[in-house]
Design brief:
Strand content: under 5%
Number of helices: 8
Distance between the termini: 7 Å
Helix content: over 70%
Number of strands: 0
Order of helices and strands: HHHHHHHH
Shape: elongated
Amino acid sequence: MLKLVECQLSLKEGFSAVSNALQTMLLRSSMPRCPPSLRKGLDILKTKEPFDDKLFLELARLLRAAPSVIAGHQEVDKSVKIDVLEGLYHQLKSVPPVQLKKAHSLRAHLETIKQNFERYAPEDRLCYLPDPVPEHEAAQMKGYMDALDTLLSDIDKSALGLLVKDHVSLQKQLSDAAEAVQTCKYILNRKNL
């Protein structure tokens, strides 16, 4: 029973960390990712003669162009370079709405999981379970653990993963949540729960 309570406390911490991370993601994905200076730089690049390779490289870096685009840029025609940067610009500009929609969706899903978890495991209910803990109780706790694990995986695989990659604080929050899941997995996988 104490192990189940320990798992409960670990999952509560995990839910809290993911909730904070999703709140941050909502705020960050609400902000425009393409400052006006990028658009202005692209417009300058289109009209300036001779072609400004230094400006091209700076814009490519800001737009996160692949290293191959940057490395072989001398052999590529001006119009191709501009097309590549335009494509990256439009891709970067379209990311925040997708991220915002996904963040709202995952936050709603998290709230549902949390509410069900809190109904299943209010503060002291687990303390009154018999030892050994009935199998269905451990199975329910495992279900909540799996739901949190799946949510973390969904964040990583979605457009939000790009947002996480750029922010150390989000990485830390999601790492804390993943650690909470691992702690619970370790507890639930031990014999004689």
